[in-house]
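Table 4 source record.
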Amino acid sequence: MFEQSPKEEFLSIIKEIEADSSATQRILSAKIGISLGKTNYLLKKLIQKGLIKAKSFSSKPYKIKKINYMLTRRGIREKMLLTGHFLKIKEAEYNLLKGEWERLENNKA
């Protein structure tokens, strides 16, 4: 499996939170394929940057706190920027591979 860059991991977390704001860190970790500790670290960074908000929904002090993550307006904007960034990268990779394929096909003939 290929290792994701931090920007890809941020984008993956943002997409998962947008799809399911009640997802726990453990669920996010499993879906994205990174460790629970790294998921926690990335979520804290996203909160510090103002891209997501964390809200506790447990009113009883003796119960484990249930946290929901919500995407902010700034988070939505960042998601669009990151998506555009990765589309450009993937398009460049595609064009490079297409050119190499065509070169190999021409050499074969």
